Amino acid sequence: MRNAIFTTWMSCFLFLLFSCSHEEETLKEAAPGKATLSFAAVLNDLLPGREADKQQLGNIPQCSEEAPAFVEVVVTHLEVPVAGTFQEPLRIKVHRDSQGNYFTAERAELELNEGIYHLEYFRVLDENQEVIWIAPREEDGEINFAGMVDSPLPLEIDLRAGTKKYVPVDVICFDDRLVNLYGYLFFDLQTNEAIKFCIFGNYCDETGRHIDAVSYSVSVWNFSGIEAAPKGAVLYEELQNAIVIEDDFENEISVTYAIPLCLALPDTPGQDEYYFEISLQGFGESNSLIRSGVITDEDVRSLYDGDNNVDYYHFREGNCNLGDSPDLFEDVAEGI
C-alpha cells in the first residue's frame, strides 16, 4: 500500500461543508422545473484535545480564527458558467444559526433548471474579504492538495425539480505561501491570459551527491523597470514547492522526491517582465537566497514544448558540476 504525504507547512484542520439535515428538501414554492442550490458549513477540528501535539508541529500555521462571512462559487452547466465566473465568482453572504452552523443566504442565481451541474470553484472569506478556507481543485497530471480531501473540485451536482439541494464540499485552510497547490490561479487575470512557468531544483553536497529532495521558496514581482529596485507589484510571495514521501509498506521501500513548483504568470499585450527570487529552505538559521533576476514572457514561452507540455527551469546548487538549464537567473548564493 502506498501512502503519499505532503511535507509542507499546512494547517492540520479539515472543514466539511454539508447539509444541515437532509441532502434534498422539497420546496414549498418552487418555480416549475426549478431547483435551489445552497450550502451549509460546520467547522470540524481533526485534532480535538491534542494541543500538545499541535505545539509539537511547530511552524505549521494554524487556521484563521476569523469567522466566515462570504462564500464565493462558480457553478457550470455543460461547461458554461451559470452562477459566477472565474473572473468574477458569485459572492454569497454567510449567516450563522443558533447552533453555530454557517449557511449561505439564498440567491436568485442559484435557482436553476433541473439537470447536471458542476461546482468548479469554492472558497470562504472573512469580513475583511480575506480567504480563510478553500476547496482544492484537481489538475490533470498535477500533485496538489486535492489528494488531501475525499471530494475535490470539480463536484458533480444533480439538481431535481422542486428540491433544495445542499452540497457537501471539503475545504482546507488557506495559506498564501502554498497558493500554487490548491489548483487555482490566485491573482486577478481580468482579461489577460496566463502562461505557465515551472521550477525544479537540485542540491549537491561536497562529494557531488544529489540530495533526494530540495525544499525551496519562490517570490515573484512584476519588474518595476528600475534595476536597483526591481520589485513592482507582487505576484507571489514565498511560494514553497512540495516534498512527497511514498511508502511501500509491503516491500519496505520509502521514496522521497520533490515536485516541480509551477505557477501562472500574467501575459498582457506586449512584453511582460517578471522579477524572481529563489531561496533554499533549511540551510543555516534562515532561508538562503540563491537566484534572482528578471525574465520576460518570451523566456517563459521558450520553455513550451507544444501546446500542453512545459519544460521546467532547472537550477543546480552546490557541487553539482553543472549549470542551470536554461541559464535564466543570476547566481547569488553565498556560502552554501
How would the blueprint of this fold be written?
Blueprint: E1 2-6, E2 14-17, E3 24-26, E4 34-38, E5 40-41, H1 51-56, E6 70-77, E7 80-83, E8 90-96, E9 102-104, E10 111-113, E11 115-125, E12 131-134, E13 155-159, E14 163-166, E15 169-173, E16 193-204, E17 216-223, E18 231-240, E19 243-248, E20 253-258, E21 261-267, E22 273-280, E23 288-296, H2 297-301, E24 304-305, E25 309-310, E26 313-318, E27 330-331
Parallel strand pairs: 4-14, 16-26
Antiparallel strand pairs: 1-19, 2-15, 3-14, 4-10, 5-9, 6-7, 6-8, 6-11, 8-9, 11-12, 11-13, 12-15, 16-21, 17-18, 17-22, 19-20, 22-23, 23-27, 24-25
What does this structure look like?
This protein has 2 helices and 27 strands. It folds into 2 domains: 9-181, no CATH class; 193-331. It has 336 residues and is mostly beta strands. The strands form 6 sheets. Strands 2, 5, 6, 7, 8, 9, 11, 12, 13 and 15 form a 10-stranded antiparallel sheet that branches. It has a 5-stranded antiparallel sheet with strand order 18-17-22-23-27. The two termini are 38 Å apart. 3% of the residues lie in helices and 45% in strands.
Helix content: under 10%
Q: How many helical stretches?
A: 2
Oligomer: single chain
Characterize the biggest β-sheet: 10 strands, antiparallel
End-to-end separation: 38 Å
> What is the total number of structural domains?
2
Shape by Cα distribution = elongated
Question: Strand share of the residues?
Answer: 35-45%
Count of beta strands: 27
What is the radius of gyration computed over CA atoms, rounded to a whole number of angstroms? 22 Å
